[in-house]
Specification:
Blueprint (H helix, E strand, L loop, with lengths): L10 E2 L1 H7 L4 H13 L12 E2 H10 L20 H5 L6
Antiparallel strand pairs: 1-2
Helix pairs in contact: 1-2
Length: about 90
């Protein structure tokens, strides 16, 4: 009889992503916009889950002096709503 092999998932739920960051799900959801602005890896658009390996790389990339072999991050500003780009407050 062979033993079932435990498979470690590469993607984790939002609650698990929060726990990986030392946060509750509510805290993670509150912090998420700021994290994404700083290059935090977004959730998969189909599953809503997060790549644990990408989170680990992002966390290390915050400290290049301590982790010099970690790829550096290039943060691309997130796309903004057209009204925000134009400075409109929604009134005509």
């Amino acid at each position: 009889m062979s033993r079932a092999r435990k498979i470690e998932p590469g993607d984790i739920t939002p609650a698990e992503a929060g726990a990986a960051m030392g946060l509750t799900l509510a805290q993670f959801n509150h912090c998420l916009p700021g994290l994404l602005d700083r290059g935090f890896p977004p959730a998969d658009p189909t599953t809503g889950n997060y790549a644990l390996d990408a989170i680990s790389v992002w966390r290390k990339a915050r400290f290049p002096r301590l982790f010099p072999n970690t790829p550096s991050l290039t943060v691309v500003p997130k796309a903004r709503d057209a009204r925000e780009k134009l400075g409109s407050n929604g009134h005509r």
